[in-house]
């Protein structure tokens, strides 16, 4: 097994169990535009992306809209307050064993950073609801609005490396529940890329991005890394 000094984990569907509420909300705001799009199509075309991009790409792939940019902006304006309202009442939790994994990684000298297609406000709200703090359970939190380019570009992983003073991307593992997480890992030159089946996409969808491993959950990393 390659030496790893930094593990970067996606949030929703990977380290945070929020019952797919984010993509259900994306789905709803697209339905509100009058289009008949399925949740499965939203997951296929939007999973893991910054959420305006997720809406735009779903509209482009699944509708005959001739005003995609404007309609996506309109839907996104409705998405943010709808998601915040949903999260305020949702029982957000981690997947079983995730906190123990983070603790074990720290004891093994491996830093833990979360990255996400959420904006900073929503991501910090989730982290607070979980009772996590930077400097305790996690070593950093990187959101899509903190960098110039979201996934599949490597910017969020590069920022995570900067935060943790890791210079060699071969010492970095990236894990996520969507193919775009794997594409992000490869763009950054990560030493390991891992797809997990606890969230948005299927094994076949993840396999298209050719990760090094596909696991049921990130907790299985404990046996691989420690």
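^ Assign residues to that structure.
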């Amino acid at each position: 097994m390659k030496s790893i000094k930094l593990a970067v984990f996606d949030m929703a569907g990977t380290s945070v169990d929020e019952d797919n509420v984010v993509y259900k909300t994306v789905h709803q705001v697209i339905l509100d535009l009058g289009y008949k799009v399925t949740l499965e199509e939203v997951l296929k075309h939007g999973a893991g992306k910054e959420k305006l991009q997720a809406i735009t790409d779903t509209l482009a792939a699944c509708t005959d809209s001739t005003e995609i940019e404007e309609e996506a902006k309109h839907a996104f304006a409705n998405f943010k307050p709808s998601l915040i309202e949903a999260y305020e009442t949702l029982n957000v939790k981690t997947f079983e064993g995730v906190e123990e994994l983070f603790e074990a990684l720290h004891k093994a000298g491996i830093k833990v950073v979360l990255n996400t297609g959420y904006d900073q406000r929503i991501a910090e709200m989730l982290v607070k609801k979980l009772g996590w703090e930077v400097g305790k359970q996690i070593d950093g939190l990187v959101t899509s609005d903190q960098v110039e380019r979201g996934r599949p570009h490597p910017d969020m992983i590069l920022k995570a490396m900067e935060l943790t003073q890791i210079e060699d991307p071969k010492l970095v593992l990236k894990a996520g529940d969507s193919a775009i997480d794997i594409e992000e890992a490869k763009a950054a030159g990560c030493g390991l890329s891992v797809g997990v089946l606890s969230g948005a996409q299927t094994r076949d969808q993840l396999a298209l991005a050719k990760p090094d491993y596909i696991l049921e959950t990130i907790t299985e990393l404990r046996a691989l890394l420690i």
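Residues 68-89 form the longest helix (22 residues).
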